[in-house]
Amino acid sequence: MRTILLLMGGALALTAAVWAQDYNVDIHVRPANREAKPRLEVVRDAQATPPSSSNAPVLDEITARYYVQAQGQVLDVVPDFHFHAANGNAIVLHRELVATNGAVAQTQIPNATINIAPEGQKGGAVISGGWRCGVPVYYVTMRAVVMDSDGNRSNSLTYTIHCNGG
To answer: CA 160, CA 11: separation in Å to the nearest integer?
Structure first.
């Protein structure tokens, strides 16, 4: 009888130790404030550039949507890049990594092809990005420009995505 109680007591202690270990790891990785929501902020950038010519597209603003379902996954932050192109020939949104305190590399930030009809671009259009934060606490700052088929570059806008309180 003592052997059975000892085995049961050992199993309970082991189960409690595993549960506590998992719980501690979860608390260690996630922010103390579990209500920390991702957020996007457009930041003033001393290195911001104006459009490369009077015919270049113009990046008007960046707004954000949160927790958007897209292609079977939930994107934590969806930056919406509002632009207009007088010639209607914008072809790509380019984002450059400026700063981060996380494990983010430029290779994880692809260009986005703009497939919006010329008339839509002339009147003002939106191209959307997407960001999944994951579990770590970090921020990532990027600089965005729109490029057209003539080689012109828009003004740049810089923005930061804060993940899990980072």
So the answer is: 48
